[in-house]
Amino acid sequence: MRKKIVxxxxxxxxxxxxxxxxxxxxxxxxxxxxxxCGVIICTPFIHLASIAQFLDQSVIGxxxxxxxxxxxGAYTGEVSAEMVKSTGAQYVIxxxxxxxxxxxxxxxxxxxxxLLALKNGLKVIFCIGESLEEREANKQNEVVKAxxxxxxxxxxxxxxxxxxxxxxxxxAIGTGKTATADQAEEIHAYIxxxxxxxxxxxxxDETTILYGGSCKASNAPELFAKPDIDGxxxxxxxxxxxxxxxxxxAR
Length: 251
What we know:
Layout: E1 5-9, H1 16-32, E2 38-43, H2 45-52, E3 60-64, H3 81-86, E4 91-94, H4 97-103, H5 107-119, E5 123-128, H6 132-136, H7 140-151, H8 157-160, E6 163-167, H9 181-199, H10 201-206, E7 209-211, H11 220-224, E8 231-234, H12 241-250
Parallel strand pairs: 1-2, 1-8, 2-3, 3-4, 4-5, 5-6, 6-7
Helix pairs in contact: 1-2, 7-9
């Protein structure tokens, strides 16, 4: 059975002290009341080493929000996959629409990031999804297929087992709009079929596919009830322990 996961993406929020406090609260809450799914928090780089010291990673996995597409060297301000791994983190988000849109993370750049993350023993949460214009033109299927082909379908089937796919309709991130549960299920099922075409049904059935896009405690139960939605990649609602716990409990 594939793993059910709720992952938090803190984005550029929380100073170090507030981030550590939130992680401690989540750690205490979920250690006392074990979740019935995998839980991951992906934090800004500066939080990772501090949080790793006390986080029980059998209960909550720790991840970064990005990594560099270079191994090391004269790249001022960049953080390598090896550095992320050395903090104690186990996961990294790659390909988030904000990285693609604001920082020009091209498919080729993302391919390099994925390879370096896997080389350093990190599991990858790989984000795909269409814009509002692409959805209105009914191009969502070709967009997500191209994003997979451009950055992760070069991997072997064995390597691909370290990829968690996160489908995020860009038009529903931070907008309050959410894909309906039926819309989300339709494209999740399509994504799984594309993975099956590439790697076979067994690998596709084992691949965790998360929904990201204004998912909150109120709509999570309906989304998570769908057969091909294996959990969520949560933005704003992961910044308060009670809100995040509400979504975890829905899984």
